[in-house]
Write a structure and sequence with these properties.
It is a single chain. This protein is an alpha+beta fold. The chain has one domain: Alpha-Beta Plaits, CATH 3.30.70. It has a 4-stranded antiparallel beta sheet. The radius of gyration is 15 Å and the shape is globular. Belongs to the CRISPR-associated endoribonuclease Cas2 protein family.
Length: about 100
Amino acid sequence: MMLLVCFDLPRDTKENRKEATKYHKKLVELGFTMKQFSVYEREVRQNSTRDRVIKVLKDRLPKSGAITLYLLPNEVNDSQITILGSESIKKTVRKPQFIVL
């Protein structure tokens, strides 16, 4: 399953921008990849992992922020359609992969 995080963090003051940047960095630390500026995704395989990640996202959310989480089954995520503008040619469209080293 994919955990999709959509969030809205205020950026009107220097302190708000700092908090938003910290939250973006935390998402990356948790294994999320940026899909769009305020939309990140991560594959989760176990309910315990999902619950732990959700708790961290909730605990680290700035006081004036808001997040929406979607848990997408693989069938839904594998059926996504991405449409790129002519200026976005460099962007890579990929299916999520699980790699074992």
